[in-house]
Amino acid sequence: MVIETSPAAELLLIGRVLLGGVFAYLGISNMLDAGSNIEYARSAGVPLAGIAVPASFVLLILGGLGILLGVYPVVASVGVVAFFAGVTPAMHAFWHIEDPEERSQEKTQFMVNLALLGSAFIVLALGTATWPYSL
Predict the structure, then answer these.
(1) Minimal CA–CA distance to 127: which of 80, 58, 61?
(2) 3 state SS of 1
(3) pTM of the predicted model as reported, rounded to 2 decimal places
(4) What is the pLDDT along the chain (135 residues), one digit of tens a residue?
(5) 3-class DSSP state for residue 130?
């Protein structure tokens, strides 16, 4: 599959910049607050949170940059898929929460993460195509 026709090439570029940029930003933002993110993961019962949380930052940052730049898009999107597939049920397990307001907030975050996971699968599906404007 080749995506070289206008406006498809430009739309893919815009989508890559937005999606990959947000993923990289989220990874960096979470990394800058690593201590509290590790503690939050521990409180949610994540095993080996001291290793898993920093590893998740790497997946999100490198995956985001790979999508943004069009560098190894299959590998980049697999990293993002791995991030959301692991983080979403572990950190947004709304079904375990009794408080209705907190449950609703976590359910919303769970759904947002599912949408982002879906976008990573779309990028994975397009990853074997020739991407214009990529490094």
Answers:
(1) 80
(2) coil
(3) 0.90
(4) 667 777 888 999 999 999 999 999 999 999 999 999 999 999 999 999 999 999 999 999 999 999 999 999 999 999 999 999 999 999 999 999 999 999 999 999 999 999 999 999 999 999 988 888 888
(5) strand
